Amino acid sequence: MGIGIDVGSTTTKGVMLDSTGKVVAKSLMLTGASAVQAVEKTLKNISSSSKIDLNGIPVISTGYGRARVELAEKSVTEITCHSVGVHHINPDIRLLVDVGGQDSKAIRIGPSGRPEDFELNDKCSAGTGRFLEVMARVLEVSIDDLGPLALQSKKPSSISSTCTVFAESEVIGHIGAGESAADIAAGVHVSMVSKISALSKRVGVKEPVCVTGGVALNPAFRHHLSNQLGVELWVPEEPQLTGALGAAVIALEKHG
Q1: How many domains does the structure of the chain reveal?
Q2: Residues 63 and 124 in one domain
Q3: Does the pTM of the predicted model rise above 0.85?
Q4: Strand residues in the chain grouped as ranges (E)
Q5: How much is the pLDDT for 79?
Q6: Looking at the structure, do residues 181 and 214 belong to the same domain, yes or no?
Q7: 212: closest CA among 107, 119, 123?
Q8: Does 66 share its domain with 120?
Q9: Residues 89, 94: Cα–Cα separation, whole Å
Q10: What's the burial of 115, exposed, middle or buried (CB within 10 Å: 0-12/13-18/19+)?
Q11: 13 pLDDT above the threshold of 90
Q12: Closest Cα to residue 59, out of 239, 240, 255?
C-alpha cells in the first residue's frame, strides 16, 4: 500500500492505494492557517474511511507544504507527482495543465509517465485560482458562480493587464462603465487563460491534453482554454487529487 499527501496553498489532499494501485481512501480539505493540522486531519480521514491502521504504510509528500508532512519518508516535486498521477489514470495524456490556488504549470509528459519538460507561473497570481477569487469578490459573485456567469457573455470585456492588482482596477472601471457582469467575467477568464495558454505553448501542445487542479472544475476556464489551444480537453473525475495520487503511486512503487 502507499499514501500520497499533497499540501497545497488552498487545499490539502490525501490518497491511499492498495497493492494493485486501486484507490481505497481519499481526503480533500482546506489547508487553513496550519498545514500541520491539515495533514493530521487528512491522515485521520484516510484511516477512518479505510478502517486501516496507517502505521508502517509508506507516505510520500508533495505540494508547497510538503515539508510539513512529518511522517513522509520522502518529498517529491509537484511536477513529478502530477505527471505520475495523471499517467496512472490516463496513460495517453501528453500535456498536463494544472491550475492551483497560487500557481499554474504546464507539463509535457513522456510515455513513461514522467515529466519531459515544464513551465511554471509561480511569481504572479494572474494565471491562478487566486486571480479568479479576487475578481469574483469584485463582481460580488461566488467563485462557483463565476464560470457559469462568464459563459452567458456575448462580448467579453477587455482585460489587458497581466497583474492582478491592475486587472482588478480594470474590472472596477468596466463595472463603472455599465458593462454586464457576464461580459466582465468572461473577460477575466480570457485574460487568465491567455497566460496559461502561453505557458502551454512554450512546453509544446501535444494531444491528448489534460487539465487538473480546482480551476479545472470551472466551465468557462475549460471553454476558453480549449479555444485558445485549439484542442479538446480531458478532465479527471477528481482533478484536485492528481498530485496526491501521483505521490501515492510513487510510494507504492518504492515498496511494492
Answers
A1: 2
A2: no
A3: yes
A4: 2-7, 11-17, 23-30, 59-62, 74-75, 95-99, 104-109, 115-121, 209-212, 233-234
A5: 95
A6: yes
A7: 107
A8: no
A9: 13
A10: buried
A11: yes
A12: 255
Residue 97 backbone phi and psi in degrees, to 5: -115, 115
The answer to whether 171 and 188 have CB atoms below 8 angstroms apart is yes
Residue type present at position 252: L
- If 0-12 CB within 10 Å is exposed, 13-18 middle and 19+ buried, where does residue 123 land? exposed
Domain enclosing residue 185, as ranges: 92-235
CATH code, domain carrying 10? 3.30.420.40
Residues in the chain: 256
Which tens digits make up the pLDDT trace of 200-256?
999 999 999 999 999 999 999 999 999 999 999 999 999 999 999 999 999 998 876
Kindly report, residue by residue over 18-54, the tens digit of the pLDDT: 999 999 999 999 998 899 999 999 999 999 999 999 9
Residue holding cell 472596477? 172
Let me know whether 112 and 195 are in one domain.
yes
